[in-house]
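User:
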Amino acid sequence: MLSKDAPSSSSKLGKTLLFVFIVSLSLRLLVFVLMSNQVEQSTLPQLIIDSHNYVTAADDIRENLRFNAHGLHIFGPGYPTFLAILREITTAPRFITLIQILLSAFGSLALTLFAWELTRDKIIAMLAGLMHATSKASIALSNLVMSDSVFFFMLITALVLFIRGLRTNHWKFYLPASLLFGIAPLFRSIGLFFFGPLLITTIVLLWPSSGERWKEKRKQFLRPIITIVIALLIVGAWANRDRGPVDPPIAYSTYGGMCKVAALTRARINQIDYSEAAAALDEEIADLMPAYNNKLYGAYMAHSKAEFIRLFKTYPLTTTTTILINAVDKSNSSKTHLWRCLPSYALPINRFEDMLGEYGLNYLVAVLSIIGLVMLIARKQYRLIIILSVIYVYFAILSGFTVNTGNRIFLPGQTAWTIFSAYPILAIFNFPRNRIRKVRKVQPIRG
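Assistant: Predicted structure:
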């Protein structure tokens, strides 16, 4: 039950938190050990092109204190700066993944706390945490030089602090939450618009219940609003930095998403392959470079935005359905990067993930989430429904702006779908026990 006034103490969760943390840490370390025997440490930054860009930008920061590297134009400065700090200690890539493994395990713990803050149900909280702990996508990404584990840890920790702030109205929760919410999008641009879900969460939790007066409640809105504004100021300081007089604001791969949607929409309209539509866009961008001082990213971002807007105005239904279809596909993708971590097992891993897609089992999370939603509606947990639904839809829609990423973009959606899914899973576990109790109850008394 979502109770606005319940105490925020998590003392009842002690053993549960420890259990979830140990499971999460153990599984990630298991892959780490197996991976160390299958992947050369020196090749870790080359396994994925993003990893190479991150490390290149990190070394430019570490060696020259420059924030102008290629990768920063796409990803923002957060993760490269994080890598630069770690590479000052040691340049061994496995040291980076060990730190990420630890943060990912704490992310499982924090998700357990988040579920507890929202539901006050220890079993639901444990199940939610365990689903993140055992997630193939999360385990794989924590073992790669990728920003996802750090971003997830910051996001879920900030959410725990923010919810506690809404319950207690204390700055000791709001201030660290504002910093984390502001810094997290500098690691992953998918957090750039998360102020929307935060604002809705604030309204939902602070909206007066029956019998409460609006005048008494409205004063409590000031601190969470200030928290959101601080976060926006932090991320805005980088997002609006101009590279030159003819360049649009840089640093976020949002424009990349627009470009991919534009190419997908063109492919549907002209009934051609996505690769052909993307190649045509690349040619147009190359032709525009002289107008942008031959800066690729200036031309790329400007044309991506202009073409996306043009297609949306001309073909609004096709563009919208392209995003929605892609969102459903990517948020339910069974493909992960686990095979990159364990190349010796790449064949069975890929076969297993392909089998999930072939039999429609990749939609299991969505089905469980819908069942959980229905169960919460039956219980009239409307505040909880709104909060989780907004987070779920936010990351699902952003997944619609990606191509060939598996379910990586939807990974932070675990903050919502794990809690939704925990309710039907718990019901399944309880069903046999409830049936036995019912049978015993109706048995006649003998003697």
